[in-house]
Amino acid sequence: MVRGKQVERVEAGSIAAELEIGPGDEIIAVDEVEPLDILDWRLAESGEELVLTVRHANGELAVYEIEKDYDEPLGIIFALPTLDRIRSCQNRCIFCFIDQMPEAMRETLYIKDDDYRLSFLSGSYITLTNLREEDLKRIEALNLAPLYVSVHTTNPDLRKKIMNHAGAGEILPLLTRLAQAGIIFQTQVVLCPGLNDGQELERTIEELYALYPAVKSLAIVPVGLTGHRDGLYPLTPVTRSQAHFVLEQISRWQQKCLAEQGTRFVFAADEFFVRADEEIPSAKYYEDYPQLENGVGLARLLLNDWNTWLSILPTKAGRQISATVITGVSAVEYLRPIIDRLNRIDGLELTLVPVENHFFGGHVTVTGLLTYYDIMKKLHKADLKERLYLPAVILKEGREHFLDGYTINDLAAVLEADIRVVENLSQFLADLFETEMR
């Protein structure tokens, strides 16, 4: 039997929705050829005319002749993001966050992927340690760019040590080969004090910058350490003085790169500025924000949004509104002045609640890793306002589940609150004032 690809859902208003393709259906073929993975599928569905063979959940086999715009997606979301087996990570990085997670969480949270297809399609970072020759040739032939690469260090011996992988030292030859084939990269370094900082970081920046413009940018991110590191490599968090040193080191390189190439090239994650107790740079610093997924520039975008709204804030709310706003500890210093200013508006009563991360523990302070457990530990029903605003980054898997498996409905049932999930500051303010986003 031809192996089908199961549909998880279809996007509203899409071609697939019009054809009444739905969850549980299987894609058998496109133009009588079975797509073997997500890249095959994306190439096949990009055409203007195609014949789609589907086995519906009731067992009925259907063939659809489709005419559409070139590159217009059909709107099908598959149960497996790659259609076939996700390439798992072969490394045992000494700072791997998954190894630092509590036990008994959802099984999917322990999956370590290192798949070049997901890197190309969704911007996930890969190490290039598990690529076969056929993978390299496919990347070159299909010009799969940009790819997002976790470098950590260009020192071959040190990279082997950090990643616990015998082949990890080949990163520069791999990047050079792919660069010569026209592939471009966004890269990152997870900075571990005493290992890949100082002169080692200097070497890494220098050798990656030598591959510019194939290597478009480099993000330096402080290592994240939870409270679940028993038996793992002894690592220490980045201190305030170390953060200052890294920012100065990056600044020197930015001046050099700007003078030579017109780009800063290397960027520090926002957390370095927080730990160093320094102001977030202006929007100009972040250029076109190439490293947002690494937390480079998120704080600046929030401040930009606030500046846009500041000049048009009303003096009085349309009606009396009281609300509780949840955030992680690291974002408090940026949100506190905003909430204080909003509370000067007649009719608004907002309470900002910083939630400590007890679930992961350690030095985890970012909002995106808060859990149901953390929120419930902090909040008391009697203290809640009329509304409860949650940042969407807290929720995973279809925007319903917290990392510890509970759902928004679970939280709403216990707190008996009007919970509103917002993607960003603009959406929060638009909901607050019942107006459209700016």
Overall description:
By secondary structure, the protein is an alpha/beta fold. The chain folds into three domains: 5-78, PDZ domain (Pdz3 Domain, Roll), CATH 2.30.42; 98-295, pyruvate-formate lyase- activating enzyme (Alpha-Beta Horseshoe); 304-433. 32% of the residues lie in helices and 19% in strands. It has 15 helices and 13 strands. The strands form three sheets. It has a five-stranded antiparallel β-sheet with strand order 4-3-2-1-5. Helix 7 links the parallel strand 7 and strand 8. It is globular, with a radius of gyration of 24 Å. The protein starts with a strand and ends in a 5-residue tail after the last helix.
Q: Runs with pLDDT <50, length 5+?
A: none
Strand content: 15-25%
Count up the domains.
3
Order of helices and strands: EHEHEEEHHEHHEHEHEHHEHEHEHHEH
CATH class identity of the largest domain: Alpha Beta
Quick recap of the structure?
The protein is an alpha/beta fold and about 450 residues long. It is about 30% helix and about 20% strand.
How are the SSEs placed, and which strands pair?
Blueprint: E1 5-10, H1 15-18, E2 26-30, H2 38-45, E3 49-55, E4 61-67, E5 76-78, H3 116-122, H4 133-142, E6 147-150, H5 156-163, H6 171-180, E7 185-191, H7 198-209, E8 215-222, H8 240-261, E9 266-268, H9 270-276, H10 298-310, E10 316-328, H11 332-342, E11 346-355, H12 372-378, E12 387-391, H13 397-400, H14 408-415, E13 418-422, H15 425-433
Parallel strand pairs: 6-7, 7-8, 8-9, 10-11, 10-12, 12-13
Antiparallel strand pairs: 1-2, 1-5, 2-3, 3-4
Helix pairs in contact: 7-8, 8-9
